[in-house]
Structure formats: C-alpha cells, structure tokens
Amino acid sequence: MAITVYGASDDIIEVDGDISAEFPYRNAEPATLGFSDGTLLRITYTNAGIWRISPIVRGAADLTIEQAPENDDSNYSDRATLSGAVWVVHGIDHATR
After folding, report:
1. What is the pLDDT of residues 70-96, one digit of tens each?
2. Dihedral (CA of 67, 61, 32, 23) sign
3. Starting from the edge strand earliest in sequence, which strands make up the sheet with 12-17, in order?
4. Residues 96, 81, 42, 9: what is their CA dihedral angle, to the nearest 10 degrees?
5. What is the torsional sign of CA 61, 55, 45, 67?
6. What is the pTM of this model?
7. Is the distance from CB of 26 to CB of 52 less than 8 angstroms?
8. How many alpha carbons fall within 13 Å on the CB side of residue 76?
9. Distance CA 41, CA 66 (A)
C-alpha cells in the first residue's frame, strides 16, 4: 500500500495512491496530516508559491520526501510517499509527547 501527498494549486492538499482524497488548505497556516502508522506530516504553502512537506513524527511506514526546486514553475510541490499506512486525517495542529 502506497500513498503520495502533494500540494495542488494554492489551496488543496492531494492524497493519491491506495487512498485518494483532497483536503482544503486554509488561512496560510501549516496543515498536519496524520497517518495510521504514526506518521505526522506538516504541509505549508510558502510565500514563494512552493508546497513544502516535512515530517513531524516518523511512523512505521517507509517515508520518502522529494523536494521541489525553488525556481521551477512546473514542479511547485514536495512529494511525500508513504508505504504501509492505511488511513489519513487532516488537521491544522497537533500535539505529541
């Protein structure tokens, strides 16, 4: 099972693969995606028009993040791929111990 996460336009977070979903991106606040394996990702749309994805917590799934270059209008989003997660939730904040 594999899931790819990336930003689209300037207001949508896409999840594709074995799970497909779109989540709204609001208020220019970092968004948080939580996955069933324990992974937490922070997703931010920057002032430069680039989607950045960074891990907050690495879970049991294999996680790879491909960074988008700074000055490429056709590639404006990092892409995170998780292998092993079975569900995802969207939020704007998180708490960890």
Report:
1. 887 788 999 999 998 779 999 877 676
2. positive
3. 21-24, 12-17, 2-8, 79-83, 62-66
4. -160
5. negative
6. 0.90
7. no
8. 16
9. 13
Q: Which amino acid is at 76?
A: Y
Residue indicated by tokens 């791929």: 81
Q: Give the three-class secondary structure for 94.
A: coil
With tokens 């056709």, the residue in question is 74
Burial class (CB in 10 A: 0-12, 13-18, 19+), 70: exposed
Model confidence pLDDT, tens digit, residues 10-66: 899 999 999 899 999 987 789 999 999 999 999 999 988 899 999 999 999 999 999
DSSP state for residue 77 in the 8-state scheme: B
